[in-house]
Amino acid sequence: MSDKKGRNLELYFMIGVLVVLLGSAAANYVEIAANPGSIPTENAIPPAGSYVVRVFATQWAWSFEYPNNTTSVGSLTVPVDTNVSLVVTSIAGAQQSAVIHDLLIPQMDIQIYAVPGQNNTVTFEPTVVGSYYFECVEYCGEYHYEMRGYMEVVSR
User: Fold this and answer.
1) How many CB atoms lie under 10 A from the CB of residue 133?
2) DSSP 55-122
3) What pLDDT, in 10s, does the model give residues 39-71?
4) What contacts 53, CB < 8 A, 6 or more positions away?
5) Which residues make Cβ contacts (< 8 Å) with residue 86, sequence separation at least 6?
6) Euclidean distance between CA atoms 117 and 60, whole angstroms
7) What is the DSSP annotation of 31-56?
8) Which residues of the chain fall short of a pLDDT of 70?
9) I need a surface site. Which of 113, 123, 125, 129 has the fewest CB within 10 A?
10) What class is the 37-154 domain?
């Protein structure tokens, strides 16, 4: 193959890669612009009127504190067709150490870190009543596999 053909092939390959990368960037920008509350932010103030749930990660459990001051461990219940804001942090548990966790609710496109001493907030609106699993996807120690549960979306 001649040197010119090799350069042309390399140029076409680079242009193809650039087109794929720019297309992906554009698609991500459009998705983020359409759903600005779905991006976790540190110390963000939940939107007015949101159903705010405080989420505490410990080794090795998730606990939830609701607006009416009730709590649950391992299961999250939220109303359908309502803006729900999760304010997430990590606290010391029975092991006396707070470590980084990562809450994933895949069906809601939510992944948010639980960091000791920091509140991270994400807002979403569940539109379908049902049961959705969640889990920790940041290895946090010996019983990491126990940090999973279900989010129940219920009618109001």
Assistant:
1) 12
2) EEEETTEEEEE-TTS-EEESEEEEETTS-EEEEEEE---TTS----EEEEEGGGTEEEEEBBTB-EEE
3) 655 567 888 889 999 999 998 899 999 999 999
4) 64, 65, 66, 67, 76, 78, 84, 85, 86, 87
5) 53, 55, 103, 110, 112, 121, 122, 123
6) 17
7) HHHH-GGGS-EETPPPPTT-EEEEEE
8) 1-2, 35-43, 93-95
9) 129
10) mainly beta
Is 80 in contact with 154 (CB distance < 8 Å)? yes
At which residue do the structure tokens 């649950």 appear? 72
CA within 13 Å, CB half, 138 = 17
The position carrying tokens 């948010």 is: 112
The enclosing H or E element of 3 equals: helix 3-34
The amino acid present at 133, given as its one-letter code, is Y
Work out the burial of residue 101: count CB atoms within 10 Å of its CB; fewer than 13 is exposed, 13-18 middle, 19 or more buried.
Answer: buried
**pTM assigned to the model:** 0.73
- Closest residue by Cα to residue 123 from 30, 51, 29: 51
For the chain, what are the domain ranges? Answer: 3-34, 37-154
